[in-house]
Amino acid sequence: MHQQGPQQVNIEQVLDGHALKGMPLQVAITMAIVLIADGFDIILLGYVAPAVAAEFGITHGGMGAVLTASFLGVVAGGFLGGSLGDRYGRKFLINVSLILFGLATLVSAVTDSVVLFTLARTLVGFGLGAATPNAAALMAEVLPSRWRSQIITVAHASSTIGTVVAGVLARQMLPEWGWRGLFVVGAVFPLLVCLLMMPWLPESPRFLSRQQQGQQRTARALNRLVGETRFRGDEEFVHSDSGEGEGRFRDLLATSFRRDTLCLGGIIFTVLFAWVAIGNWGTTVITAMGHELSAAVSVMIGYNLAGLFGAIGTALVLRRLGSRRVFTALAVTTIAASVLLGTFLQIGEVTLFWIGVYVVIAGACLTSLLQASYPLAAYVYPTRIRATGVGSVFGFGRLGAVASSAVTAGLLALGGSPLVFGGIALAAAGALIGTRVMQHHIPHASGAAGR
Q1: Which segment of 23-32, 77-86, 105-114, 276-285 scores lowest on mean pLDDT?
Q2: At a CB cut-off of 8 Å and minimum separation 6, what does 213 contact?
Q3: What ranges do the domains of the chain cover?
Q4: 8-215 with 249-437: one CATH topology?
Q5: How far is Cα 18 from Cα 228, in angstroms, rounded to an integer?
Q6: 10 has which bridge partners?
Q7: Is pLDDT above 90 for 18?
Q8: How far apart are CA 331 and CA 438, in angstroms?
Q9: Residues 6+ apart with CB under 8 A from 60
Q10: CA 221 from centroid of its chain's CA atoms
Q11: Is the pLDDT of residue 64 over 80?
Q12: In the chain, what is the straight-line distance between the N-terminal and C-terminal CA atoms, in Å?
């Protein structure tokens, strides 16, 4: 008599048949809080840099070196943290990241050595860089497909809440508690998330199904996600890329992924170039036009708020319209607004109102492009290289932020504000080209594919 084989269970079908409630919703909320902690810590040093420099007795150049070391840690964390997440698990790497940047921030708060402070900030950057691709991968692999791109975009946009909270606390705490007190808050936050929230989350069932003897763990993870004991562990768990081998860095440039990897890296590089050009130099550019510093700061607050609401709006339409259409519209809007403002600045004076309008438009479009790149990257790469892919394209893309600081300073010196906005338009054009050349896109709701 023929013996029947194990029951085959498609993980995607199981997850797609479950509503966004219970454990999947808890995963989404926890990842948003992880990314809020990420946003809080990543901006923290920027708010207190003058006080830190004064206490350690270092120059602006020395403080710049500390900031650069921290940023390079973020880049390294993106590359290596993504790869380690594909090898050891998304949840495991998120926990390691939270512990790393929590403890390293605590070291930053208590040390009297500028060398140890710099090393600690580099480790903070590594932890921050490693957390983001693994958070994107975990959400991509446990959320129902109809909610996936929206939730990933909103969760990563939540990091803006962390930057806003850091600014508010800096203003309130610095006079009484100093920068060290603020760093203690930045250390305790991720450690509490790791201790109180992360233990309750399951690992990605797609990741577990790829491990040797992983059926029992996969069954337990799926049971927790669907909220009932439906699987015993003797099933054969499959998903869309079950048959593929172990992922490696070089796979990102294999024939099937090369175009998308290069385009994604280029999109993120150019978007971050433009985003940092406005975010870091906006106040300088506005005051150079003759406006008061207080007015310039007020305008730039609108930049971050517009980014948050723009990303939420983009999340709502990303699946309905598809990423190719959405990215194209956002890039074209940024190009048009930047060219118009640069042209009007060239031929005459522009009022603060219209500068504010531009900052809001650019903030909404550029932040939306940046945050929506997370679900797009998670869509492009399969389970075996998902965290590696997301981490690598964002690791490379963050170099655009490094280039932006130096290039924008040069543009400002060479041609003033009009040339700066011309550079932003050119960067947005690069993002547009990458969008149009890219092969795979998140499909729109009414189509079978978005390619």
Answers
A1: 276-285
A2: none
A3: 8-215, 249-437
A4: yes
A5: 11
A6: 238
A7: no
A8: 14
A9: 53
A10: 26
A11: no
A12: 48
Rounded CA gap, 11 and 16, in Å?
9
Contact 178, 48 (CB under 8 A): no
And the tokens for 55? 């206490």
pTM over 0.85: no
One-letter amino acid of 125: G
Q: Is the dihedral of CA 304, 306, 309, 312 positive or negative?
A: negative
- Of 190, 206, 169, 233, the C-alpha closest to 86 is 206
Tokens, residue 116: 């140890």
Return the residue matching tokens 């040797």.
212
When pLDDT is averaged across residues 157-162 and rounded to a whole number, the result is 84
- Longest distance between any two alpha carbons in the chain, whole Å: 89
Pairing of strands 236-238, 8-10: parallel
Q: E strand or H helix at 238, and its extent?
A: strand 236-238
Residue 254, C-beta contacts closer than 8 angstroms, at least 6 positions apart: none
Annotate 154-205 with DSSP letters as a single string. HHHHTHHHHHHHHHHHHHHHHHHHHHHHHHHHHHHHHHHHHHHTGGGSPPPH
Q: Between helices 114-142 and 23-56, what is the axis angle to 10°?
A: 170
pLDDT value for 449 = 41
Predicted confidence at residue 365, as pLDDT, reads: 96
* Size of the chain in residues: 451
Neighbouring C-beta atoms of residue 13, cutoff 10 Å: 11
What's 249-437's CATH class? mainly alpha
Percent helix, strand and coil across the chain, each rounded to 5?
Answer: 80, 0, 20
The CATH number of the structural domain formed by 8-215 is 1.20.1250.20
